[in-house]
Amino acid sequence: ELHDVVFTVGETIKETYHDLLDKWFGLPQKMHIDSYMVLDVVDGYEVHLKEERPDQRQKLFFINLGAYKKGDFMEHHANTFLVSDSVIEVKKRAKQNLLKGYEEVHKDDLYEVDDLLEITELNGLHVHLIPTNRKQNLVPVNGYHVLPKSVVKEYLEK
């Protein structure tokens, strides 16, 4: 079972192509994007990226839960982003809110996003979380999005 979730940073999805290709585990010619979203407000916090390290206890988490549904020959998944200073709280909240009515809900992936993004090593940026009253609007852009052949060719030639 493969959960190929990749995190990247850019003003537009096109700006992320080379970084995504760097992180892709397969052939660059087969790399594609199934879904992406902008993280600007998560769980009551604005998400900012800055060069300096944050002075905060709260962390941004990505969680991917798996579960089974009677009669289905597959594992179902749901994922979300949450902010907390506690891994235990994140697991509890996710299990309470995701995949209700499914059997054997279990955690597939749980990461502190700052660690997973490795942004301190890649481009010197750290996740800063600022409390806000702004509404969360995490809307995925879904669809089979193949990178332009010219981008892949340019990437392979570098």
From TrEMBL:
Gene3D superfamilies attached here?
3.10.20.10
Would you say which domain of life the source belongs to?
Bacteria
Give the DUF1543 domain ranges: 1-49, 74-117
Quote the protein name from its UniProt record: DUF1543 domain-containing protein
- Return the InterPro entries for the record: DUF1543
